[in-house]
Amino acid sequence: MYDFKNSDLSEQEKAVLQLTEIIASAPHTLDDAFFAQLKEHFNDEQLLDLGFAVGMLNGLHRFLETFGVLPDSLQEGISCEIPRKEG
């Protein structure tokens, strides 16, 4: 989702996507204001779980990309079409 900030997602979902973007691209930009926004939706344990999951998946993705590892389904040309919302 390219423009999640202007989408009809819930504020909680938007916060998760923004956190994901920060962890993956610019972790040094996580500021107190955004952290306070996250705390409106998640407790400390949930934030740690979420951050850990995003960080681990991001690291796995980077590892796979670095070494050119593709899942069998991609090597066989199988794909999953992501539906786009009309309107």
- Could you estimate the helical fraction of the residues in percent? 55-70%
Q: What gyration radius follows from the Cα positions, in whole Å? A: 16 Å
Largest sheet: none
Order of helices and strands: HHHH
The tally of helices reads 4
- The helix-and-strand class reads mainly alpha
- Rounded mean pLDDT is 87
State the end-to-end distance.
14 Å
- Describe the global form: globular
Strand content: under 5%
The overall strand count is 0
Q: Low-confidence segments, ≥5 residues, pLDDT <50?
A: none
What would the keywords be for this entry?
87 residues; mainly alpha; 4 helices; globular
Q: What does this entry look like structurally?
A:
This protein is an all-alpha fold. The protein has a domain at 12-70. It is built from four helices and no strands. The protein has helices spanning 11-25, 32-39, 44-67, 72-75. Helix 1 (11-25) crosses helix 3. The longest helix has 24 residues, at 44-67. It starts with 10 loop residues before the first helix and ends in a 12-residue tail after the last helix. The mean pLDDT is 87.
